Amino acid sequence: MAEVSITRYDFIDALRGFAILGVVLVHSTILMQPSSNLLRLVAENGARGVQLFFLVSALTLFLSMEARRRGEIAPLRNYCIRRFFRIAPLFTVRFSPIRWQTGSCSTVGTGVSRGLSGGTFH
Questions:
Q1: Is residue 3 within 8 Å of residue 67, measured between CB atoms?
Q2: Upper half-sphere CA count for residue 51 (Cβ side, 13 Å)
Q3: Report field, pTM of the whole predicted structure over 0.85
Q4: DSSP labels, 23-47
């Protein structure tokens, strides 16, 4: 597989920064209320940061795949393999203790849902 040069766009990094800032603002209003109406409005709309982050992530995935497509024989297969090996190790590390705790290897039902809520949101 040939090494492909991926173009890095500054505006994408800026959009990620705005998305993160929005999420941080929303979470900071849990601890203290903004002093001005403008700050309150900005903080309330900061929840859009999650959606913005998802859109930017999708854009970067498509740009990356398009850049690699030109230099690969099976770009979709290679893309799926790269995504799998990027996600699977962390997923395995994160959910192995849950499988051990629940004694269940089932991915359906209460084991995973209890593990997701218990390990992520508490």
A1: no
A2: 4
A3: no
A4: HHHHHHHHHS--SSHHHHHHHHHTT
